[in-house]
Every structure is written in structure tokens, then in C-alpha cells.
Specification:
heterodimer; A: Rossmann fold; six-stranded mixed β-sheet; 10 helices; B: MetI-like fold; 11 helices; 82% helix; binds adenosine-5'-diphosphate; binds magnesium ion; membrane (chain B); amino-acid transport (chain B); transmembrane transporter activity (chain B); MetI-like (chain B); transport (chain B)
Amino acid sequence: MNASTSTPAPAAIVVDGLRKSYGSNEVLTGIGLEVAAGEVVCLIGPSGSGKSTLLRCVNLLEEPSGGVVTVGGVDVTDPDVDLDGLRRRIGMVFQHFNLFPHLSVLENCTIAQRKVLKRPQAEAVEVARRNLDLVGLADKADALPAQLSGGQQQRVAIARALSMDPQLMLFDEPTSALDPETVGDVLAVMRSLAEAGMTMLVVTHEMGFAREVADRVVFMDAGVVVEQGPAAQVIGSPRNERTKLFLQRVLDPTHVRGDAAEGSEG
Amino acid sequence: MTVSARQRARISRGAQYAVLAAAVIVLIVVADWGQLQRAFFDPAVAAAQFPAIITVALKNTLIYTALGFVVGLSGGVLLALMRMSSVAPYRWLATIYIEFFRGVPALLVFIAFGYGIPTAFGVRFDTYVTVMLALGMVSAAYIAETLRAGLQAVPKGQLEAARSLGMSHSRAMVSIVIPQAFRIVLPPLTNEVILLTKDSSLVYLLGLALTQYELTKFGREAISSGGGLTPLVLAGVCYLIITVPLGLLARRFESRTERKAR
Ligand SMILES: Nc1ncnc2c1ncn2[C@@H]1O[C@H](COP(=O)(O)OP(=O)(O)O)[C@@H](O)[C@H]1O
Ligand SMILES: [Mg+2]
């Protein structure tokens, strides 16, 4: 968090006491989290700890079972809230891209602009091309998603979300499904977004990215926030035992074998 | 003598070819070609079927099929939506309908519409209306299941991505989910039309005027006035003229979606 900003940044996302259950399985058990405007927060934690669920509660792809979530000051759990209006201000990037396979790359980036924002075709195309250019894929505008590599598809997905001029972006493990050699391109795009001042909440296992780009890192385990703070502190010198164990495994995969028996109780 | 597995396979395949070839030769030699031709393809009888077999029979088969398909598709869309509705009674109704009409022979449905319902309620339907309802109601059940499977084959992430861009549920369905389901559904839907084409022959159960004859009825009437099976063979050929291109079309759609999926 660069404290040099003179105006106090309003919180973009406030999550307080968030609970989410699937049947009797309580996945989130009272999450508290804030993301300030312009801030980049990386969310880390073991698989199944509820990171995706938390993200999906922020744009109400999942309905919270309890607690408060506000986005840009709007309580998203209010039954009267304009959900579609809210979602279009929140960009979301999925692990498996979820590009529309029947539409070209350009159409992927224009369809919601035209159908939701009612932008004229020419303006939508202009915005889409600008964002495709931003992610380095201006020359792929006419390709179908299936003709692109995973990394290229994910960059199109980012351009698609950006084309709606979102106020903040959610990323759910955007590089986890990618071939290693294409991860860098996607991270580079995300880094440039962060530098441009985009508010970002990123679920990731890329500790290098978290350390360099994130203002704050939040470690989640078993449905609660265990530890959060500046990236260098949480990743560099974690205080909580669970955080330490998790980071050991992620940063040094060979370590997993030795600790597997002790760590696999969950 | 030791024989490798590959050699054995080759010998076995050779033997099968030899047996097949022998059977064909015996058939050709033994068959009474004159007799066969008189029975199945008598040129004079064949010529007599034209042009009615095309202008009446083939035309009516196409009309009956089209009428059935229009009702079947509309009913199928409605049933599929009911089947996936969040309102439980809609789901039950649709399920009962689908299970009933898939489980009962189309023949029975035709009898019901042709005789049962008119007698029971004292109403008389026009032939075309009867055909439309009987064929349509049966195919609606199959089409509903085809459509539902197609819609559910579109990954959930597609709807989520559309919603996350701010699209309403109906907008996301119209712009994102249904176009993809349509591609998935085209091959089975084409097969549905093939089945419908053949089921239209059940119209023979109804009392038909001459001008309402379709291919099967037309063929049966023609052979009853003597002249061997030639009219039926011609009718069969006419069915193939409709169904074979449809089958090829279905396969084209299939290979196209497969390529897309890679
Ligand atoms: N739609 C769902 N229905 C039932 N259980 C779910 C559903 N989505 C997630 N879960 C459960 O919630 C827990 C957390 O999942 P998730 O948020 O995806 O974790 P993470 O993203 O941290 O790996 C898991 O145990 C998962 O099985
Ligand atoms: Mg996840």
C-alpha cells in the first residue's frame, strides 16, 4: 500500500463477518477483509480453503449465507440492489477463462458492451481493440478462442473484462490452468494493470507475483482469514504456523513429501 | 508350422472375403432375375406411379413431417423449459408428459387421435390437424429431452462469465448459452426429423382421401391393385431421398462441433 496518496481512498470492497454454507458444510466462517481503491490484494491459501467462494460472494455469483459485503459502498446482499449493474462494474477473470467459444476474440470483448452497456458497435469495437492491444493480442481479434493458447485465452478474458470499464477486478487463479511458458505473459498484463492503478483482488499461487505486485497478502485457511499484512511480511516472515507450513509447501515443493503425513489431516 | 498372430488374422480375413464372394456369386447365378424384376421393379408399373408418387405422396409425407416438426419443436421447447423450471409442478408435469409419450408406441397415439378422442368427445379433427397433433406430441417428448441435454451440455462457466459481465439471466441465455446449445443439438435434432419422416407413415391408420395419401399409404394402395411390390420399392426410394441427405447433414454438423470442441 503506497501511503503517499493524499486523498483517503474509499474502500472498494468491504467484507465483514461473511459466512457461506453449502448445506451443512460451512465453507466461509466469518471472513473480514478490506480492499481499498487502487489497492492490489493477493489471496493465498490451500485448496478448498474457500478462496473462490469468497471471490464469488463479492460479485454474488454465490449468495452469502450471512455477513456483509459492500462494493464501492453498495451493500450487495441488499435484495433491492441492481445485481446486473453491480456485476458489470466488477471484472472477473476465471481459472478456466470461460471465453465464449462461438464468438471471435473481438466479439467476446464487444458482446457485453453492446448488450449491457448499449454501446454502439463502432464504439464497442474501438474499446475492445484498445484492450486487446493492452494485453498484446490486437492481431488475434478475428481468431476463435479455440485457436489460441491458454495464456492468450486468459489475456483475452482480461481484455473482455476490461472492456466493461470495471471499477475493480477479481482474479481467481488466473494462471493455474496454464502451461508454464505462458504464465509470464498473463502475469505481465496483470502487473501493468496494477501499475495503472486498478483495484485488484487476486487469488494466486504465484508467490513471486504476490511479493512484487501485491500491496497486501491475505492468507486464508479453512474458511477464515488467518493472517494478513504487507506482502513482504506475510510471505517473507509469516507469524502464523499454518501460514508458514503453507508457504513452505508452495515455495519448496520437495518439502511437501516430508511434511505430507503431518499436513494432510484436513 | 507356427503361425504368427498377424498371419492368422490375415488368413481369417481372407477366408471371410472368400465366403462372402462365394455367397454373392451363388446368389447371382441362382436368382431368377426375370422373376425378381417382375416382383420388385417392373418398369411399366413403376412408370404408372408417376407423377402422383411425387406430386401427392412425397409431397404429403413432407407436409406431415413438417407439421409434426413445427408442433414437436414448439412443444419440445416448452417442455424443456418446464423440465428445467424452478417451479416444481412444472417439472413434474413435463416429466410425466415426456415419460408417457416416449414410452407409448406412436401407433397408439395415432389411434387415440384418429378414433379414441373423436369418439369420446364427439369432435372431428381435420386430417392435417390430427397428424400435426399426433406426430407433434410424440416428437415433442423426444425433442424436449434433446434440447435439455443440449442446454445442460453448455458448461456452467459460460453462464457465470456472462453474468459476471453484467448480463441478465435471459440475456445470457439468448446471447451465450442457447447459441452454443443449438450447435450441440443440431445433429440429434436432425435425427429427430428422420424419425418423424418415417413415423408420418402411421397416417395410414386414419381414413385418408386420395389427395392425402403419403408414401406408405400410396404404395400399399398401389400394390393392392396388383403389379408386384414395385410401388413399395419406389416409396422406399422416396423415403431415402429425404432421409439420406438429412443423415449426411447430421454427420456434417457432428464433425463441425467436434472440430470446434478441440
Ligand atoms: N457449489 C458448491 N457446492 C457445494 N460445495 C462447494 C461448492 N463450491 C465450493 N464448495 C466447497 O467449498 C469449499 C471451498 O471451495 P473453494 O472456495 O472453491 O476453495 P478454494 O478456491 O480455496 O480452493 C470446498 O470444500 C468445496 O468443496
Ligand atoms: Mg478455487
